[in-house]
Amino acid sequence: ASGLPRPLVERGVGCGAHGIDGGERSGYRHLYLYDVQGKELAQLTHGDWEVTDLNAVDETHGLVYSTATKESPKERQIYSVGLDGSGLVRVTKEDGTHAGNFSPDAAAFVDTYSRAGVPPSQQLRRRDGTEIAAINENQVTELAKYHLSPVEFLKVKARDGVELNAWLIKPENFDPAAVADAVNAATAAVI
Fold first, then answer.
1. Is the separation of the CB atoms in 158 and 166 below 8 Å?
2. Residues 6 or more apart from 49 whose CB is under 8 A from it?
3. Do residues 105 and 58 touch, judged by C-beta distance below 8 A?
4. Alpha helix (H) ranges present in the chain?
5. pTM for the predicted model, two decimal places
6. Per residue in 100-113, is it b (16+ CB within 10 Å) or e — as a string?
7. pLDDT of the chain along its 191 residues, tens only?
8. How far apart, in whole angstroms, are the C-alpha atoms of residue 47 and residue 57?
């Protein structure tokens, strides 16, 4: 393995006489449309975010469907964009992580969705994101007996000043005052 990112779609596949490929010229992975000679025709996606997967090409409606981090690096949403790079639209609505498995004509897709504290579920959706049917709601009632605390998302600053995303799960019945008392007692014992 070379360590280089794999092409999202090989040139010449999935888009008639054209091809779509991923590139990182801007420092972020985005989609580009090429002709059969390999000449770039259009940059399809732009911005300070990454395309993580190319889901489908709908040549009939002139749309490309991809998964991206546009809203947040902690999320994966499905978007559509025109083959000319216009009209980027968020297709999935729920905050969290989505993975799309599209039909060959891109008329529908199975959306596997999850978020912190919610197990993955699958819904059948139309190309615009509206739900057709729930396939697997995955309501795990056994989780309630574990009394899981909610996940808290936060940012921590590294030594070089870069802010990093982090998450924190506190124990059940967490008491910050008790933690402070324990830290103070340990500090006093060392001194």
1. no
2. 28, 68, 69, 70, 73
3. yes
4. 176-190
5. 0.78
6. bebeeebeebbbbb
7. 334 344 444 333 455 567 888 889 889 999 999 887 888 899 999 999 999 999 999 989 999 999 999 999 999 999 999 999 999 999 999 999 999 999 999 999 999 999 988 889 999 999 999 999 999 998 888 777 877 788 888 888 999 999 998 888 888 888 878 776 666 666 666 55
8. 21
CA distance 69 to 75: 6
CA-nearest of 141, 74, 84, 153 to 114 is 74
The encoded tokens of residue 180 equal 């402070």
How far is 51 from 66, CA to CA, in rounded Å? 7
Q: Where are the alpha helices (DSSP H) in 75-163?
A: none
- Residue type for position 181: D
